[in-house]
Design goal:
Elements lengths: L1 H139 L1
Length: 141
Amino acid sequence: HGAALHALAGQARETEAAGVLGRARVLAQQQEDARSMMVERQQQLQRQQQQQQQQGWRATAEHALHQHGAALHALAGQARETEAAGVLGRARVLAQQQEDARSMMVERQQQLQRQQQQQQQQGWRATAEHALHQHGAALHA
């Protein structure tokens, strides 16, 4: 009977030990699962943060590019206006130069006409004086 009790007690201890080991294994697995879930959750959060940052950077970059594009568009407009103003300015200068040249030609023509008239008048005067001189000589004779 003692030997049987001794054997039963040994089995009970083994069963108890097996139960404790089993519970320890279950707890260890639960802890590992919880740790894995935490790691996975952290990685998920990191990915979300990276995506948000990338989206933020993309939005910032797109905004900057949009502003840069608007600035380039404005600069191109200013360049076209400046170029147009330059073309208009040059056209005005050319028109003024043409007007000045035309005025100088008209002035030169008028000057030449006056000189011709003066030469003609002097010629007529000389001719008239010569004729009068000859007429006077004839009258004197």
